[in-house]
Design brief:
- The longest helix is centred in the middle third of the chain and has 17 residues.
- It is globular, with a radius of gyration of 23 Å.
- By secondary structure, it is α+β, with helices and mostly antiparallel strands.
- It has 16 helices and 13 strands.
- The strands form three sheets. Strands 11-10-9-12-13 form a five-stranded antiparallel sheet. Strands 2-1-3-4 form a four-stranded parallel sheet, covered by helices on one side.
Length: 417
Amino acid sequence: MGEKIEKRLTIVEGREMNKNMAQQLVDAAKAAGFSTRWIRKIDESKIAEGKLDEVFSDMILWRSPTGYTSAEAIERVEYWVNKNRKITINTHSAGGRMYNSNKFFQHEMFMSDPITRPCTLPCYPAFSKKFILKLIKDKRIDYPFVLKPNLGSRGEGIKLIRNEDELMKFNGTYSIYSVEKFVSSKYDWRVFVLGGVALGVMKKLGNEDNPADFIAKSAGKKRWSEEDLSLAEEVKNIAIQASMTCGLEYSGVDLIRDDETGQFVLLETNVAGGWQNGFYEATGVDVPTKIMEWFLDRMELFNGTVYNAVSKYVSRRLELLSRDAQAKYKEILEFSYKPGVLDLSQAKTLEEKLRSAYIMIQKPDLSEVEKTRVSDLISAVENYEISGYGNFIGKDSGSLEESLERTALYLAISSKM
């Protein structure tokens, strides 16, 4: 696979408000044995002169760079990173990182997916006061609604507009906002998704006396791990799909639940989602350490054998999956799974081929021709476009749970070869 990846990590985190989290990432990286470089601002002359190899190491955690003057500069960096052999988090995001962070752009991604679409509210650009009044006149939206900044975090800048008088008094720059229906929700949920797996679910209670206190809603005056397991599963599934829809290996996903209908509403994915508001205390999940484990697993995929890397990747995350998925994984590896007999030479999809090979490999008298067919399939899988299954975010991919059957089949077949 070429030269080995070195154990060096570049953390791109420039926002002053996130410096404590960036330091935690640096500390976790050092504890995992990485040599680490923390970049707060990328020298744009390196972009202009084609010297980005002087900026980035083999592994890159892309969070929040500053100092750019245009979206084009960001996209040039993304293009270079993805063109070269780098292990990265969040440089493959749909539409480019800058636009992925844009709430109005995210809305289109959520609307395009069958799982996230039912959890997505209609969202309109807030061109002007006149435009919003027309939306109300056309009954596309009604009071109360929120004006939400397209770029922002922590609930800052969100305005609750209860009536026409409040709209008339609002004098902000409309073009930076989107318009969305206000949903009354007692609780908020924050889910961290990494590599197609939900690490944990934090439930938050904001300022009960003031529904317009969105900063308190975002931070949570009270925070704890979601105790209802079925509810937690539902939240996890939505969050994982939202992260994948946005093309993100890592994200902090925010949801609320309509007090009247019980419908979950997807608010946003955060490419630089923070855990500083008590996520560890609530869930016991150390996000920086989990991120470094992800890099170590990806490094092993590049430097070691695919079989070992994938096996370790799944074993680290198996306990985070549903009990049904865990049981199916165990069943496949113990060769008690019955996928149905298929002729490998006639199988068309990857799943069909793996199921066929799984049945074939258990024969006591495997012919040389059959061994060659199975061996060729394993080689094809290990060069598959989903990065050898070491990362389940990407083209034709899904969550780890969705990919678990073919992953387990691959591991079971490989163990017999």
